[in-house]
Amino acid sequence: MKNALKAMFGAAVVLMLLFVAGCSSDDSGSDTGAVTASTVTSISAVAKSSSWTEGDTVSVDDITVTATYSDNSTKTVSTGYTLSGDTTLKAGANTITVTYGEKTTTVTITAKAKASGGEEEKTGTVTIEVTVDGKYKCSVCGTEYDTKAEAENCAHEAGCPGWEYTVTFNDAEGGSNATVIKKVKNGSTLAESDIPTWKKDGFELSWSSSEANVTTASKITKDVTFTAVWTGLFTVKFVDSDGNEGTVTKTVKNGDVVPASDVPAWTKDHYTLSWNGDTTAAITADTTFTSVWTENAKFTVRFVDSAIDEIAAETDSALDTQSIYSGEKASLPAWASASRKNKSAYTVTWTSSVEGLTPSSAITADVTFTASWSKTPKYSYITFSGTKEASATSSNASYTVTLTSANVKSGGTVKYAGITYNTMKMESKTVVTISGAAGKKITVVADSAAKFLVNDTQTTAATADTDTTNGNGYLYTFTAPEGDSFTLKKSDVTNIGVIIIEN
């Protein structure tokens, strides 16, 4: 009996110890209490959802915890673990620590920012379709994913190609037009027909945007509200005070200026156009501009003749004194014509009382032009043949020319005053003798910058013709020595094309 009592007592102690052990152990880490946390070697954890928004709170019900035991078995733990860290989510990555018994692990949850106004960027309930090949299709754009979470995430993301944004059109404060709301797919633009074409007499419609740099022509990538802006329109008229031009009417926005191209550029002989107001000022009311015609300045132009040897000074009552508008030209009096009263033998030059003005200038000041007459020079020419054995010819019988040389030859051509002349080669024994030209001005046209001997006296070198358009030669000018004749010889090798005698 005693032994039986001892056995019963021992059994009771064992049961009590087991009860105490069970109560003292942390049974929150096991699903049934049959395996204690002390046998756990590691834990892992994942969030049950992949779609989170800033401000969401993560609880133990949102996390799946798996324990690995010393016998290498694993089991999903449903109770007995705690969470710490970023359990109230901020936009971006959040780290949450999971503790089960003595073991810990972390879970990273990424939350997207709330839309403006603090509302999540979602639309209603998401329906995910499972395809025949086991893919998950986004209910918004139809894109297929390997996991349901990816498809759900796409359906709630602004990057989803099928995502729609709300575009709102409001009238200005106090306006009578009803609000218009349109749905536009992410990255698309508004159709022209989507944009209201409200009208208001005397005003032009434009839009202000709730989002910077977003216009009604932009690609839509967020919700946006456009508010009507009514800009006043004003009528601007341009009226000709003389009645010669038709009235020009333009419509200009409040605060804008009239474009320069819209301002009439009317003309009137001898007058300058201006306006009775500032056409470059901002328009803030209906405006009429009237033309102002200002007569251009006039200047007095006088022509004065001077006497010449055999002709007295002349006058022309109609043209000797003229009143000329600024910028216009005067007319020459009849007596200025070189054909009048034997003046064909004379050349006229003009002296001006105003520097820079000539009878052919646009007149910009009162001026007097005085005519001076000089006899027009006449010329005679000694030319040379283009034959192998050169010969010389004088255009004036008063001047004779002879060539002396053992072998005078043709030397090519040279151009002077637009005329091309045959040249004669000046060799060592070539002598050109000219008679009857004493005291006359002589010009020799050569094909190089040569020096000559005039009556055996060396000259300076010939210089290039300055009229390069009409000539390509070199000119040496001198006065013929006194006497019946003079000779011309070479000092340097050259060819001469013409000898000009001023009568």
Describe the structure.
There is one protein chain. By secondary structure, this protein is mainly beta. It is built from two helices and 33 strands. 6% of the residues lie in helices and 40% in strands. It is elongated, with a radius of gyration of 56 Å. The relative contact order is 0.06.
Gist?
The protein contains 2 helices and 33 strands.
Task: Give the topology, please.
Elements: H1 2-24, E1 40-47, E2 63-69, E3 74-77, E4 81-85, E5 92-100, E6 103-111, E7 129-130, E8 136-137, E9 144-145, H2 148-155, E10 164-170, E11 180-185, E12 203-209, E13 224-239, E14 248-253, E15 271-275, E16 287-295, E17 298-304, E18 321-325, E19 346-352, E20 367-375, E21 379-384, E22 392-394, E23 400-404, E24 409-416, E25 419-426, E26 431-435, E27 441-446, E28 452-454, E29 457-458, E30 463-464, E31 474-479, E32 485-490, E33 494-502
Parallel strand pairs: 10-13, 13-16, 17-20
Antiparallel strand pairs: 1-2, 2-3, 4-5, 5-6, 7-8, 8-9, 10-11, 12-13, 13-14, 15-16, 17-18, 19-20, 21-22, 21-33, 23-26, 24-25, 25-33, 26-32, 27-31, 27-33, 28-29, 28-32, 30-31
By DSSP, the count of extended strands is 33
Q: Taking all residues together, what is the mean pLDDT?
A: 83
Shape: elongated
Strand residue percentage = 35-45%
What is the structural class?
A: mainly beta
Poorly predicted segments: 1-37, 115-125
The helicity comes to under 10%
Give the radius of gyration.
56 Å
Calculate the terminal CA-CA distance, rounded to whole Å. Answer: 181 Å
Helix count? 2
Question: What profile does the largest beta sheet have?
Answer: 8 strands, antiparallel
